[in-house]
Amino acid sequence: MQVLVTGGAGFIGSHVVDALVGEGHCVRVLDVLSDAAHAGRPTYLRDEVDYVEADLLTVADRPWVVAGADAVAHLASRVGLGTDFLDAPDYVRDNDLGTVVLLRALAGTDFAGRIALASSMVVYGEGRYRAPGARLVRPGPRRPEDLDAGRFEPRDPHTRRDLVPEAVGEDAPLDPRNTYAATKVHQEHLCRIFGVDRGVPVTMLRYHNVYGPRMPRDTPYAGVASIFRSAYEAGRPPQVFEDGGQMRDFVHVRDVAEVTVRALLVDGPVDGAVNVASGAPRTVLDMARALRAAFGDDAPQPEVTGRWRAGDVRHVFADPGRAQRELGFTARVAFGDGMAEFATAPLRTSLVAG
Length: 354
Hints:
This protein has helices spanning about 10-20, 90-110, 145-150, 180-200, 225-235, 255-265, 285-295, 320-325, 335-340, and strands at about 1-5, 25-30, 50-55, 70-75, 115-120, 130, 135, 165, 200-205, 210, 240, 245-250, 250, 270-275, 280-285, 305. The chain is α/β, with parallel strands linked by helices and about 350 residues long. A hairpin with a 5-residue loop joins strand 6 (about 130) and strand 7 (about 135). The longest helix is centred in the N-terminal third of the chain and has 21 residues, at about 90-110.
């Protein structure tokens, strides 16, 4: 099978490429190798893969890039919170306009295969909550005055009592809380419209907190695991926001690559959204401590700062049931093992300072 992987030189994309090549498929990668993500051509790129170094927007003038594809893994994206709202046009250009240009190019080749879209848990905003009386509650954005006072848990708008978090399913309402999240929602909508219009199966993989080898380090777009690891390497305590009690689902990149390939190959296509998670949520402080354990007793203790960031949510972790039922996927890398490996795994540098 011929598979096009956009963003295939990046963190998750390169592992997807490895998995596809390992199963004997022909792969073409489209990746701009942005300075924000790479300090030159990565050494892990594979000789047997056709790499096209170009922006997604150039596909309109290069239809041969998508021609002949039997399946597409669309992972090219500007990720993270960035620096501030001044980044918004770049996110919209790279994520939304880039996606629609890719889809138009596929339409021009009468593409009839499958698409796996790299979406994200950020589309949910806050996760799923119940009031103490078992009533489902959808909390609004947390109030700055509560956060300043160290009241981090979302509250019932009627009783002002703390809500109880639980795993979020794919049927949860979408509620993006930052620019990146808004662009991921729009990507889902564009791909869904294309799928319906063209009769093409589209699996929207809502990745949760992915970590592992080749993560970017020390950029405004780096993930929290990478930021904490860099702090330990420098002998500094990682700075844990709020009280460290934020619940997330940390899932290893090899597991993420496996489920992405399954979405393209499984018997019977899986349409719609699918959570990609381990099913074993941890707090951000748990993650900082697990990394410290890998660095040894001489590593500094994490520093819980009480600081907060606008646009951050308190708890979001997944119900992975649909991935298990329809893609036959269960995460295999245990949290402790994955963090121990991650402490010394090769990371990716960029030309953009953090």
